[in-house]
Amino acid sequence: MATEAYSESWQELIDLAGQERQSAASGPMSLASAGSSGGSGGSSGAASRSDLEHSDGPWTTAAGVAEALRTSTTTAKSRLTSTHTGVTAATEGLASSGVLKSVLTSWEDRLSSVRDECGSLAPKLRQVGKDLGERDTKVKSSLQGINTPSDPSDLSEPKEK
């Protein structure tokens, strides 16, 4: 099998991706929202229970971004269409006239697809945040009745009296 030659910039990216994959495989796992210091676990790097609590903030933010993208693609499509008004008549008889129309139609279709997908995605992202919050509440209440020692070392071995 022949080896492929990449430009220097592409090769740097490929090498970097390989290094990240290796360090991720050998390093500790952490939550994306916990930050580089391991969340609120302190300087020891140990995760606290609050590291695993759910927040709907990222889901709500993502929904807002999807809505903003939907709005901007709608605006872009409208501007693209209005900018091309009269181009067909002005370029009549030129071979490029048909190509321009084809490119316009292609971009209008693409922008419509992005707009529709973002419009569909925003409410789903909000619903995920809501559902996870409700699930967290249900799990917490279901665990309320379980008695656990406050000191985990109490679980290791029964103490003799």
What's a quick, concise take on this entry?
By secondary structure, the protein is mainly alpha-helical. The protein has four helices and no strands.
Structure, explained:
- The chain is mostly helical and 161 residues long.
- Helix content is 61%, strand content 0%.
- The chain is built from four helices and no strands.
- It has helices spanning 8-26, 57-83, 87-90, 96-143.
- Helix 2 (57-83) runs antiparallel to helix 4 (96-143).
- The termini are far apart.
- 4% of the residues are buried.
List the topology elements.
Layout: H1 8-26, H2 57-83, H3 87-90, H4 96-143
Helix pairs in contact: 2-4
Low-confidence stretches: 37-49
Structural class: mainly alpha
Question: Quick one: overall form?
Answer: elongated
Percent of residues in helices comes to 55-70%
Q: Radius of gyration from the CA trace?
A: 27 Å
Averaging pLDDT over every residue, what do you get?
75
Cα end-to-end separation: 72 Å
Largest sheet: none
Portion in beta strands: under 5%
Topology order in helix (H) and strand (E) letters: HHHH
Number of helices: 4
How many strands appear in the DSSP assignment? 0
